[in-house]
Amino acid sequence: MRQIRQSREPCSRRILRAEQSTVYCINDTHGSGRQHGSGRQHASTTNMPSELHGIKAADVHAKIRLLINGMVNITDTTGEFLMTLEDGRVIDTKGWNDWEWTHGIGLLGLWQYYELTGEPEYLAIIEAWFRDRFAAGGTTKNINTMAVFLTLAYVYERTGNETYRPWLDSWAEWAYHDLPRTKYGGFQHLTYLEINKDQLWDDTLMMTVMPLAKIGLVLNRPHYVEEAKRQFLLHVQYLFDRTSGLFFHGWQFTDGNAENAESSGPGHNFANARWARGNSWVTMVIPEFLELLQLDVQNDAIGMILRDVLDAQCTALSHLQDTSGLWRTLLNVSIDDGSYLEASATAGFAYGMLKARRKRYLAGNTESAVAAIKGILGNVDARGELLNTSFGTGMGHDLQHYKDIPITSMPYGQAMAIMALVEFLREFI
């Protein structure tokens, strides 16, 4: 089992190789506007206002660097969050040196900060992660492990490193041709532990559909892009709750099979849970997808549909936000009824709202987004951990399932906070 070893040396912007692990140490000094070792100004801080909405840009950069340091040095000290597979493999879902959707989101957060700052240390961390994972032989293909390839597609596009192309090709071909499908061709939410036969989940849009779309553009395979469009429409069709404007966590096709059905009809939405992080994936991926494919939200049919769905969701969210700026893990269930405040979903909502406004897909949502950003900043502790982050959450057949999910620091929590804060920094440009 690969573990990240904490360096006892003073923090510097270096990536250290140690045996079979990679040790990361991120510089935690901020606000100078200069890179260590050079006089070059940060692209993200030059000629920018120093404060907006009562938040200083230097403080946001400091929090992001703290989050990155916490993310790449996070460890599971108890073994509580290790995932043991049938074949004997053990997946470290909490630590940085393994391969699960948690790492896919972490890599994306790093990539977005690298794009904003241009600082090579962040690209180096990303490429070191892929180098180590590929050297270990890769992993099992499923919906969640596909998540890392969104970042790799961006890195390949930027660097032109041809050693990445076979990985992009192989995994995208698997997703397009061999990933199990539900009725009507939906991507079945296959994971390490569960087949999840005939199930659609919100999470799939982020973990597999976005990587497939990006690879389709990078490798010039338009059929991947068309498949991604289809998946977005299909998931919206079965997961969007027209009565609330929110999304259900999942959908089960049953074909009226009484043995497997929780309802006598063609399918059901399990516990009818309007789960926060599942909703946040949708809030994040719709503006990402619109931007990626350059869909016109005024004239393109798919662009208009996705824009309107996002608008309905954000409107609903604005009425459910806690005074702390956070949202509850079950959005429409009160704290008194056991639905705790959850920071990773809050970060996802802030990111999607801010990006949709910046790209002019939606107007408004500024007050909710800024309140969320302040709530996120208040939940980053001195170790760079995002507090009030719920552990990875499987499909619940009742609402208590979501209330009982433990809270712990996870790479995706830090990454979602990083993404939200990076998007907020664009307000200063």
UniProtKB/TrEMBL annotation:
Keywords: Hydrolase. Residues 27-47 are annotated as: Disordered. GO terms for molecular function: hydrolase activity. Gene3D superfamilies: 1.50.10.10. GO terms for biological process: carbohydrate metabolic process. InterPro entries: 6-hairpin_glycosidase_sf, 6hp_glycosidase-like_sf, Glyco_hydro_88, PolySaccharide_Degr_Enz. It holds the Pfam family Glyco_hydro_88. The keyword Iron-sulfur does not apply. This is Glycoside hydrolase family 105 protein.
